Amino acid sequence: MQTKKTFCSICSAFCGFEAEVEDNQILSFRPDTNHPLSEGFSCTKGRQFPDLLSAKNRLLQPLKRQGEDLVQLNKSEALDQIAARLMAIKDQYGSESIALFSGNGVQFKGATVPVFHAWLNALGSHNMFSTMTIDQPAKIIATGRHGVWAGGVQSFESSDVAILVGNNVVVSSLNQLSGPPGWRPKSIKQAKKRGLKLIVIDPRLTETAQLADLHLAIKPGQDAVLLAGMIRLLIQKSLYDHDFCQQYTHDFAALKAQVDPYDLAFVAKQSGIDAILIEQAVELFGGQKRGCVSSGTGPDMGPHPNLSEHLICAMNTICGRHNRIGDKVNTSLLTPNMPPMEAVIPWDFLPPTLNLQANNRRSRVADARQVYQEMPSSTLADEILTAGQGQVKALIVIGGNPVLSLPDKAKIKQALSALDLLVCIDVRHTDTTALADYILPASYGLERPEITSYADFVFDKPFHQFAEKLIEPPGEASEEWIYLAELAKRMDLVIDLPGGQVDSQHSNEDFIGLLEKLYPAEATKVPIADIASHHGGKLYSEFSDVAVMPAIEGMDDKFQLMPEGVAQEFAVLAKTLADQDSRDDHFLLICRRNKYVYNSMCHELPKSVTSNPVYMHPDDILALGAEVGDRVALESDFGKILAMLSADVTLRRGVVASSHNFGGDSNGQNNESFASVSELLSMENSNDNYARMPIMTAVPITVVRA
User: Fold this and answer.
1) CA-based radius of gyration for the chain
2) How high is the pLDDT of residue 275?
3) Which sign does the torsion angle of CA 188, 193, 196, 200 carry?
C-alpha cells in the first residue's frame, strides 16, 4: 500500500488530500493536515471524491447513437467517425459552424481549456462557449474596463475590513481576489481574531453572514443601488483616498456626478436596509487603512451585473485599496518574473482575455460581445437555431451539462437536438449526453496527472501542486485534451501553444510536456518541471513578501472610473427603478448555494441531497396559508414549475430561495421534490450590454399553493 499526496479538483479550492492506494484502488482519502493552504480543510464533496469514480452513471466506453439506442465503439473507431463528420460539416458550412462548450467539469483542469481554445484556433472557429459567461462574466468585464494594478489588490489576509457582496464562502469555495480563501474558510474566524471587521451584504443571513460584524440584508437586485450610495457617502464624508484618486484615476468627477442621486434615504428605501446600518458600513470601510470589497454570484447573476462589479472596482480604487511601494505581496508563479509595481498596468500589456479591444467578436444573432476570448453562452441556442452564414451545426460539449446549467431548458434541448452533430466528452451520463450522437468517456482528476495552475492568480501564497494520477482510469476513459489532439491528427490540424505544438504522438504520460508548452520556462518564475518534482506541492518562499517597487518609466495609465458603457448602465438602472413593479403578490427568487453539490455535479454522491425545495421565511409561508412540505406553484414571466416548500428563518421576507441545476432526467430529479429553477429563467431577460448575461437571481415570481 502507498500513501500519496494529491488534491481535489472538483472546484478551484484545490484542497489537499492524502490517499492510500493499493492494486489500483483508493482505500482511503483524507484531508492533508500538512497542506500549506487548506491545512486539513475539505468540503463534504471533496471527501467523497473517490465515490464519483465508481458511480452508477460513470461512462467507461465510447458510445454512438443508433436510433434510440447507444452502442459501444472502440476509441479509434469513434474518433475516426467523429473526425470525418466534423470535416464534412466544415467543408459544407465553414469552420465557424463547429463550436465547443466547456463546463465546470473541466474548467479547473490544468490543460483542458487552453487546449480547447488552441484546437478551435487551428480549426479557424471563434465559437468557444463555456459556463464562465453564464456565471460571473461581469468580473472580467469590469476588470477589463476599469484596469489592473501591477502591485496587486490588498488581500483579505492583510485587510482591516472586508465587504463580501453575495458571497457565501463558508459553503461555496470558489475563490475571488481579495475574498476569503475558499480552501480555508476558517481564515474568516482567524482574521476576526486579529481584528478584521467583516461586512456581509446578502438577502439571507448566510453561514458567512453569521460571522459578520455587520449584515446588510439587502433586497435582491439592489446591489448597484447600494454600492452607488456607499460610494456617494464615502465621497461626501471624505473617507476616500484623495491623493490616490488624483494620481491614479480618471473621471472621478464624472463618477461623483453619477452616484449623486443615490442619497442615503433613497438607497435605504430601495435596498430595504436601515440607513443607520448603511452609514455604519461606509464609516467602517472608509475608516480603516487596509480593506477590500469582493463578491460572488449574488450581484453577477442579478439585474445589473456589470455596473455592480464596476462599482465594486471603483469602491476599492477610490479608497486606495491597492498595494503601494514597500508593501509586501505574494506573487503568482506561472507569469514572467516581473516585480510588483505601484502602477496601473498599461492597457496594451493586458492579456487578450482581459483586453476588451482583443475581444472584438460579436454574436451574429444578438447584441452580445466576446468575453475572455469566448462567445456568450446566452447566445448558444440561437446560434444553433438561427439559419444563415455562421450557423452552428456541430457542437462538442466537454465536461458540461448545458441542459441543466443554462436557463430555458426547453430551448436548449431544442437547439441541441437540431444540431447535425453533438459530441459529449464527459465522465458521466447527463441530460446533455442523452442527446448526443457520440459520447467519449473522460477520466476524473484522481485518474490523471493534474496541476493547480488555474489558481495561479488566486492563491494567497506562492504555491503550486502537481499530483500524479492515483489509479488508472477504467475502460477507455482518458483526458479530454487527448481526444482533441487525436481529432486534430485526423483532421490535419496543428494545435499551437506558447511553447510549441501539441505532439501528435502524445500519450497519457505527456502531461508535463504539454504543461511546459502551455507555460514555457522563459515565461514563468518557476519551471513546470520544478513544480512537478515536489510531492505534495511546494510553497516558494522566495516569492513571498516581495516588496512593491516604483513604476518604471512610461507606466502612467490610470484607472477608468467611468469607462465605456458605465453611463449607459447607470441610465438602465435609473429606468429600472422608475419602472419597477411593486405588486404585493410578487416575491423575488434568488439562487441558494448547496454544500452537497457543485452546480450540476456531485448529485450522485452517497451523501448528496435528496431534494431541492424552495425556501421562504416562515412568516411568508404563514401569510400564504401554507405549511412546510406543501406543494406550491412558482410562476415567472417565462415559465411555471411545481416545487415543495421549506422554511428558512435566515431569509428576509419577500424572498424565495432555491438552488440552480436541478430537475434532471438522468439523475432521477425530474419531479416536484427537485425544483427546476432554470425553467423560470430566460436567456432573453438581460440588462447586460456585453455578454447578455441573463438575470438569474432577483427574478420576480408569484407563489401559490398548488
Assistant:
1) 25
2) 98
3) positive
Quick one: pLDDT at residue 504?
60
Q: pLDDT exceeding 90 applies to what percent of the chain?
A: 92
Calpha distance 275→72 (Å, rounded): 64
Q: Residues 5-51: pLDDT tens digits?
A: 999 999 999 999 999 999 999 999 999 999 999 999 999 999 999 99
Handedness of CA 183, 187, 188, 191 (dihedral sign): negative
Q: How far apart are CA 443 and CA 60, in angstroms?
A: 9
Q: What is the pLDDT of residues 294-308, one digit of tens each?
A: 999 999 999 999 999
pLDDT in tens, 325-377: 999 998 999 999 999 999 999 998 999 999 988 999 999 999 899 999 999 99
Residue with cell 456607499: 230
Low pLDDT (below 50) residues in the chain: 508
| Residues 6+ positions from 7 with CB-CB distance below 8 Å | 14, 15, 16, 17, 35, 450, 452, 465, 467, 537
Q: Which residue is it, cell 473541466?
A: 106
No. of helices (H) and no. of strands (E), the chain: 22, 32
Query: What CA–CA distance (Å, rounded) separates 593 from 34?
Result: 29
The set of cell numbers assigned to 27 is: 482505500
Q: Which residues contact 320 (CB under 8 A, 6 or more apart)?
A: 240, 241, 243, 244, 245
**And the C-alpha cell for 468?**
500524479
CB 647 within 8 A of CB 628: yes
Q: How many CA atoms lie within 13 A of 437 on its CB side?
A: 19
Nearest CA to 400 among 435, 371, 450? Answer: 435
Evaluate whether 139 touches 296 at the Cβ level (below 8 Å): no
In this prediction, residue 507 carries a pLDDT of: 53
Answer yes or no: are the C-beta atoms of 185 and 40 closer than 8 Å.
no
Q: What is the rounded CA–CA span in Å between residue 458 and residue 23?
A: 36
- The Cα 480–Cα 578 span in angstroms is 49
Q: 3-class SS at 27?
A: strand
